[in-house]
Amino acid sequence: xxxxxxxxxxxxxxxxxxxxxxxxxxxxxxxxxxxxxxxxxxxxxxxxxxxxxxxxxxxxxxxxxxxxxxxxxxxxxxxxxxxxxxxxxxxxxxxxxxxxxxxxxxxxxxxxxxxxxxxxxxxxxxxxxxxxxxxxxxxxxxxxxxxxxxxxxxxxxxxxxxxxxxxxxxxxxxxxxxxxxxxxxxxxxxxxxxxxxxxxxxxxxxxxxxxxxxxxxxxxxxxxxxxxxxxxxxxxxxxxxxxxxxxxxxxxxxxxxxxxxxxxxxxxxxxxxxxxxxxxxxxxxxxxxxxxxxxxxxxxxxxxxxxxxx
Length: 310
Known about the structure:
The chain is built from 10 helices and 14 strands. The protein has 310 residues and is an alpha+beta fold. The chain folds into 3 domains: 42-136, Multidrug efflux transporter AcrB pore domain (Alpha-Beta Plaits, 2-Layer Sandwich), CATH 3.30.70.1430; 141-180 and 271-309, Multidrug efflux transporter AcrB pore domain like (Alpha-Beta Plaits); 181-268, Multidrug efflux transporter AcrB TolC docking domain, DN and DC subdomains (2-Layer Sandwich), CATH 3.30.2090.
């Protein structure tokens, strides 16, 4: 120990250089290390959400929930499985045993469910997998849009602000709550379905398949990239009515217009109504990327909201 001390005393320049490097590194880390009010904690839970529009709670349970439960039956290191079947929606919560390899189990779980996708009804949307950690219910900051406007108008403003917030560095997702969704409502005549031998599910699938826009690549010319896509998303009543459902015996197309009594554009009321001091509001919940600085993002969001209000 004495020899080590004597060596340090003889190497004063070297020791001073090391000390300065450590000081500079400490100051740099102090101002650049990401700051967390609540660090993310993996809790080993996954939620599988599956939408089956037009189905009763019993049909959802029998046709969707049970099929998925059977697919994940026997998966190792599962503590419990809780399922809820409601009208239009199947929700299954899976809790893994603590301190196991959550990510590996999640991948295996997802693979098992996707393998039985073909056994679910054609009109069922693809299952949505949500891997939960503490950040899923604790956004960095929440912005509320309130004013003497209709909820539809607030939703349009929220969509505009959402687009601006998503461009901020470190922002992973901006989720809306309490917003009204634009949708086409199509009323089908049951007698016309019986006359043509077409099922309601067949009409719903035809409309869903036609209302899709799929990225198909990029086209580069003179240094500029142009995104290409195929398909369309409905924005006019005529597009919905022109959707072909099937051909009749003479080879003619049977379209939605031949089966519907009404097709109109409207807004679906939100699943969750939000209010602040009794006033209707649309919330924007901002979530950050894993390595981003929570305090910095919160300040950037406040500045962006201030500019938006002006």
